From TrEMBL:
InterPro entries membership: ECF_trnsprt_substrate-spec
Transmembrane stretches, start-end: 20-39, 46-62, 68-93, 105-130, 150-172
Protein name according to UniProt: ECF transporter S component
Origin: domain of life: Bacteria
Gene3D superfamilies per record: 1.10.1760.20
Amino acid sequence: MFIAIIIIQTTIPGIGNIPIGPLSITIIPITIIVAAILLGSKEGSILGLIWGLITFVRAFWWPTSPLAVFVLVNPLISVLPRILVGFVSGIFYHRLINFRINKNLLMVFSGVIGSLVNTILVLSLIYLFYRNNSFNIYHINTSDLLPYLLGIAGTNGLIEAILSGIFVPIIVKPLQKIKK
């Protein structure tokens, strides 16, 4: 079921991303994080891999943005961070669940951390691999690339993390009851 949701979110415009003015808020990590909490970090990683592979393939035949053609054709940017969303959020939740931490709060933190893993890794890897080619790709000077990426992290990344922190517990709680 989660694989079908990921395929739908990544292929139908407007379902996996919420356009808000110039921003495009990615909500796909929420699905990965929910799966990692419900099923485990291995399954969350597999779903992240599927999301990453779809992102990678789409960069070649149906890119989501003009920049995708340049940066998302690199599997270290398009695939690795997505795998780690499921892995890190699943490990975080399942390792800390045995401690006396409020489960709702733990879900909130798992959502925020999983979302931030995606944002931080994607933007850091873009900077690492493409900073010397930033003018050709982004039409900005190399010295302006880091502030530009930090601006994305502070807008998109922050909103995505907050949304993940809000919606992960809302989605997980009823599904945990059904799963039992």
